[in-house]
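SAMPLE LOG
Freezer: B-3
Tube label: C17
Construct: single chain, 427 aa
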Amino acid sequence: MTRIELAKRGIITDEVKEVATEEGLTPEDLSKNIAEGKAVITRNILRNIKPLGIGKGLRTKINANIGTSKDKTDIEEELEKLDIAVRYGADAVMDLSTGGPLKQMRQAIIKHSPVSVGTVPIYEVAVRAIEKYGSIVKMTVDDIFNVIEEHAQDGVDFITVHCGVTMKIVEMLKSGERVLPIVSRGGSILADWICHNGKENPLYEHFDRLIEIAKKYDLTLSLGDGLRPGCLKDATDKFQLLELITIGKLKDIAVSEGVQCLIEGPGHLPINHIETNIKLQKSICKEAPFYVLGPLVTDCAMGYDHIAAAIGGAWAGYFGADFLCYVTPSEHIRLPDKNDVKEGVIASKIAAHAADIAKGYYKAWERDNRMAQARRNFEWQEQITLSFDPEKVLSMRAERPPVEDERVCSMCGEFCAIKISRKAVEE
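STRUCTURE (predicted):
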């Protein structure tokens, strides 16, 4: 039986107990949320990793994307990125490889990763179609589902599937109303296939095949937002909302069949659209876990898109998003390097933490309260430990240390406000 089927029967498993204990939730509440499709545990039955809970009542989680491209196919570098992502707090990683030995890359990441691993199988389908047929649009329905099964057999914990890019939406896009019709790679691949073949999206038409594979491995389906807005001008438009309604219905089918689902969301959104987007998703998708890319709150932050995404992510998390996909400084520019991964993870981690504070998550508050006490008492090692990047803090303090009083920092020195005020009010 799948997790949902067990939960519906009132069977509370050890992994549910483990997640609930860590998160400060009762096992009964978590099990109920899983049964209703409001929370998921992303772990393939073939994997032996710490279970990851995402959804209602749980800490806001973050994902880091890694993977090769045709221009850069260094597996060892991607494994280093994986280590960096996990070191700085990524709760999950996604292998988005499109170049080199894709199966070898995926298997190496799964073997090496102590956290949940996700993939986008349609990328590999497209690569194989070009190699085998000379064109993406010649891939077959069986090609798609065979690759999905391979990913599940390798132990992938969750997969992004763009089931909501339907013939109807693709036809509507021909009106030219969008500035950027489709910015999702998976969504664009399927739209191209639909237009060339004049047939419905196989992931939508044959959703039952997807359900069958997912049930076999207790694979979590991340219902992708192929129509997510790629610029602020396209935010919260009819194409995005129609896709959301479509995947919301598919999510209901999946949950009724015992398959866990995440719902993916935008994308590029102005700040004043974020609350509306989260509330729409939670209403349409019946509180299913929401997995958002950013969202980026401006289109003009190239080189600093991790900051734009962190701003949006904090707001999204506060309003109810459950899972933040990081964005790196190199978004829209190039394949991220190791430092980009670090910067992206830390920015996203800060956003998730800020959201958890606003939502009243006790462990987030506990960490900040400890930091406040450490600052009050000039406990530098504690401050460094509690920071999101201890090595950076230690290095920066060593570069410009205080001259006379090691308790303070070199910015204020003898005029340290904490030192002066404590002396004034406590002595």
